Amino acid sequence: MKITNVIEANGLTKMFGDFTAVNAITFEVKKGEIFGFLGANGAGKTTAIKMLIGISIPTSGAAKVAGYDVFTQAEDIKKNIGYMSQKFALYDDLTVKENITFFGGIYGLSKSRIKEKTKELLEDLGLEDVASQLVGSLPLGWKQKLSFSVALIHDPKIVFLDEPTGGVDPITRRQFWEMIYRASSQGTTIFVTTHYMDEAEYCDRVSIMVNGKIEALDTPKKLKEQFHADNMNDVFLKLARG
Amino acid sequence: MGIHIENISKSYKDVNALKNISFDVKPNELFGLIGPDGAGKTTLFRILTTLLIANEGKASVAGMDVLLDYKEIRKHVGYMPGRFSLYQDLTVEENLKFFATIFGTTIEENYDLIKEIYVQIEPFKDRRAGKLSGGMKQKLALCCALIHKPKVLFLDEPTTGVDPVSRKEFWEMLKRLQEKNITILVSTPYMDEAALCDRIALIQDGKILQIDTPEAIVNQYPKTIYNVSANNMYQVIKSLKAYSHQHSVYPFGEFVHYTDTREDFNTLDLNHYLEAQNLTNITIEKTQATIEDSFMELAK
């Protein structure tokens, strides 16, 4: 079976005036991979992600996401990826069902498909009883699981998760990771950013950005060996502190 | 001169945010309140800093009652709320001056206390607070909470959203502040930070699950935990959850933490079972409990 790359970035660069926010990063992410994208505040992560999701045009270099070019096919990228962040995910003043319908509609699903998906999703998450409640009234953990499912509503090849589990209790957090594993085992690529290094340990491979460059990229296990560290937190501190 | 909390309850309409909470923070202790969002951490901070009145129970801070001596308490505590508390459109220096003036002091008078932290943000003293990076905002907020030399410092999720380097520096600062005779109550949703406190209270849904030193909490974990891994993580989790003798199954990074219900548990049995599920490269090894394991066992 041929392994296809869902992200291919080659010398991807973004400059703001004289400042090089992202400095020629080169990496690929495979189909079904759980890829951790780490870096300190200001290392260039957000700028890099904005280029990958088609909302910021790179200064130079090349990249394809889900098979589409970041320079010329940004709109196709947006249609073919999922995105979830802790800051923005769902509308608190819409009900659970309305949120699902809304996002299904945004991604161009047919009415019958939205109906199907709504049923499937509510069952899957055990949210049938609260389908008509406002999302704002749900516990944080439920919201996060729901927003992950909604980010996958159009069956994207890749989903970008920006700090997905901040503040959630440890049991819910693990249920969330089980959902990620399940999506990955079904072939969805997962691209995660986080400041919490224990979360990095769940990833198949992890990259660490320092001052606009990718300074390390490997499995958590190999990174720990390479940096003689007990955990990813120590790896990060060694790299980012120099 | 620490903190005394006795049978404190607080509810908002039909939500019981705190349910009969009692504990003490010793003078000069670095005490951690560890729990997820919605556990009641902020409500407790607001009661102790006299911004909110409890429905039941009593509490004192540095020997002063939160109801009777609220004005006095406000002079002697530093409070760094979870959300960014500074004036975004004032500069770094203006923010600090503002807080010093409010408390009837000057930056110079207590400069010793904040010096070490302030020198790191001083190069940006003319920058507006809104334009600072997360790590720098956090340092400025800490300086502002310290400028009047408080007896007790309340830090509500100071490290949320901050990168690991800044988090580490922040905890190092707290340790040094402790040496200057300041009692510190700090909250965090991140269990790995618990180990850095003298004692911790694990809190969820408005109830305290346990209070002790981080070591003691981990030592009291009732079961033997095994790190289980194999070629396919999702299959491992599914298989373990379907195993009839499982007590708990939690993914932990590259492993799954597994506990068994049997006293005479033999890892070979589990190995055979996983092999029968078509898993390969199976490893099963004993491991140490973490605070997170304890939290989940208690919250179960």
From TrEMBL, chain A:
Major site of localization recorded for this protein: membrane
Membrane topology: Multi-pass membrane protein
Superkingdom as given in the UniProt entry: Bacteria
SUPFAM superfamilies membership: P-loop containing nucleoside triphosphate hydrolases (SSF52540)
PROSITE patterns reported for this sequence: ABC_TRANSPORTER_2 (PS50893)
InterPro entries, per the entry: AAA+_ATPase, ABC_transporter-like_ATP-bd, P-loop_NTPase
Keywords for the protein's UniProt record, in alphabetical order: ATP-binding, Membrane, Nucleotide-binding, Transmembrane, Transmembrane helix, Transport
SMART domains given in the database record: AAA (SM00382)
Organism of provenance: Bizionia myxarmorum
Record's protein name: ABC transporter ATP-binding protein
Location(s) in or outside the cell: Membrane
Molecular-function GO terms, alphabetical: ATP binding; ATP hydrolysis activity
Stretches assigned to the ABC transporter domain: 1-236
GO annotations of cellular component type: membrane
Automatic annotation (TrEMBL), chain B:
InterPro entries linked to this entry: AAA+_ATPase (IPR003593), ABC_transporter-like_ATP-bd (IPR003439), ABC_transporter-like_CS (IPR017871), P-loop_NTPase (IPR027417)
Keyword ATP-binding (UniProt): yes
Family matches, as SUPFAM superfamilies: P-loop containing nucleoside triphosphate hydrolases (SSF52540)
Nucleotide-binding among keywords: yes
Keyword set, alphabetical order: ATP-binding, Nucleotide-binding
Domain of life: Bacteria
Protein name: ABC transporter ATP-binding protein
Pfam families associated with the record: ABC_tran
Domain ABC transporter: 3-230
Organism placement in taxonomy: Bacteria, Pseudomonadati, Bacteroidota, Flavobacteriia, Flavobacteriales
GO-annotated molecular function: ATP binding; ATP hydrolysis activity
